[in-house]
C-alpha cells in the first residue's frame, strides 16, 4: 500500500518512508499504527509504503519459509521500487522498522541506501533465539499457531546487528517503551551505542505503545525525525 502526498512536488521529488512490520505482524500493525502514521506522513508531503513480507499478511508465500534474510531481500526490493517510482526522490528513501521489522531494517539499511533509520522497539537475534532455550527445532515448529521453519532459526543466528549498524552512515532514532515485555529496554540501549543513534524511552509504555498517549508520543517523535 503506497500513500502518496497531495502536496506540491519538490524539485527533487517527494521523500519516502518504507514501513517494516514485526514478527507475525502485517502492513497495518497493532491498532493500525502503520496505517495512521502513513496517512499523517502523506499529509506532510512524505510518501509511505506499507507491505507484508512474503508469507505474511496478504502476500503470497508460506510463513514457514520466512527468514530474516528473505525479509531483508523484500525490504531492499521495496526500496528499489520507490527509487523508480515517478515523483519520488530516489536519494531520499527512509525506513521505519518495528520489533522484528527493526531488526530487518537495521540489517537492510545500508543495502537499501536508506537516508535515515527509525526503529521502534527493535528486536535482536539473540533475544529471538532465547525463546528456544538454546535448542533449534529439527523441523517446522508450532509457535502459537504459526508454522515457524527450522531455517528461520538457523538464519537468525547468522546476523549481527552491531556489524550492520557500524556499516550504516545515516542518522538513527530508536523509540522504546520503558515497560516493554517483548523486547527488553536493554536491547534498545545496545542499539543506541551506534555513533549516530539516539534513544527515546517512553515512560511506562509497552511493546505496542498501547494507549492514545503513547501512540501520540511515538508519532510525534517519529514525524519529527522523518520530516
From TrEMBL:
This is Alpha/beta hydrolase. GO terms for molecular function: carboxylic ester hydrolase activity. Keywords: Hydrolase. Gene3D superfamilies: alpha/beta hydrolase. The keyword Hydrolase applies. The keyword Plastid does not apply. Residues 17-217 form the AB hydrolase-1 domain.
Amino acid at each position: 500500500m503506497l500513500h502518496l502526498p497531495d502536496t506540491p512536488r519538490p524539485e527533487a521529488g517527494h521523500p519516502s518512508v518504507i514501513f517494516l512490520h514485526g514478527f507475525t505482524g502485517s502492513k497495518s500493525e497493532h491498532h493500525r499504527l502503520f496505517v495512521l502514521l502513513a496517512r499523517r506522513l502523506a499529509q506532510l508531503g512524505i510518501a509511505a509504503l506499507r507491505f507484508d513480507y512474503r508469507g505474511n499478511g496478504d502476500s503470497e508465500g508460506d510463513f514457514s519459509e520466512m527468514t530474516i534474510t528473505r525479509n531483508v531481500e523484500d525490504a531492499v526490493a521495496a526500496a528499489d521500487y520507490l527509487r523508480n517510482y515517478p515523483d519520488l526522490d530516489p536519494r531520499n528513501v527512509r525506513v521505519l522498522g518495528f520489533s522484528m521489522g527493526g531488526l530487518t531494517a537495521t540489517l537492510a539499511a545500508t543495502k537499501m541506501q536508506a537516508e535515515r533509520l527509525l526503529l521502534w522497539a527493535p528486536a535482536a537475534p539473540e533475544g529471538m533465539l532465547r525463546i528456544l532455550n538454546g535448542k533449534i527445532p529439527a523441523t517446522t515448529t508450532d509457535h502459537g499457531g504459526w508454522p515457524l521453519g527450522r531455517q528461520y532459526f538457523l538464519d537468525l543466528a547468522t546476523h549481527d546487528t552491531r556489524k550492520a549498524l557500524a556499516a550504516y552512515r545515516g542518522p538513527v532514532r530508536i523509540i522504546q517503551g520503558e515497560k516493554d515485555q517483548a523486547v527488553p529496554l536493554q536491547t534498545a540501549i545496545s542499539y543506541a551505542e551506534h555513533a549516530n543513534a539516539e534513544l527515546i524511552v517512553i515512560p511506562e509504555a509497552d511493546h505496542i505503545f498501547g494507549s492514545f498517549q503513547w501512540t501520540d508520543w511515538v508519532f510525534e517523535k517519529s514525524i519529527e525525525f522523518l520530516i
